[in-house]
Amino acid sequence: MKKIKYKQYRFYKLLIVLVLAAIVGASVSAGNFVLPLALFLVALILMFVLRKKVDEVLVDERVNKIAGRASRIVLSVSVVIMALSGMVLIAIRESYPEYLITGYVFSYFACGMLFLYVILFKYYFSKKI
Question: Per-residue DSSP letters for 18-38?
Answer without folding.
Answer: HHHHHHHHHHHHHT--HHHHH
